[in-house]
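Subject — a protein and its fold
Fields — amino acid sequence, structure tokens
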Amino acid sequence: MRRLSFSDELVGFWAERHLCTVTTLRADGTPHVVPMGVVLDPRSGQAWAITSRHSAKVRNILAAGDAAHVAVCQVDGRRWSTLEGTVRVLTEAPDVQEAERRYAARYKVPRENPDRVALRITLTGLLGNVR
């Protein structure tokens, strides 16, 4: 897999406080699109998010197994960027805490949620006019 390169402009855009849309695929192949906060880690080529283990997106990801892919899109006026990649649901406390720490740095400290899981996206593609 080729290593993606992230411009300073793209990294700056993904550090701004914007909600994103996250697209997963249902079992029948139709898209499921929801808003959520996502944090880019350009050093590792990954992105992180937090969500409830009972959410539809988690069910979609788990049903797809190792083939689970997501697209994360962020829009601000005419500026937009989409991150594409494979995604894993992480349930271990250290992984969830790491995702919460990253989320808090970009957005705000998340509310308490005992059913929280982390999503770790290994990025495979970039689209947009902010690259």
About this structure: The chain has one domain: 8-128. The mean pLDDT is 96.
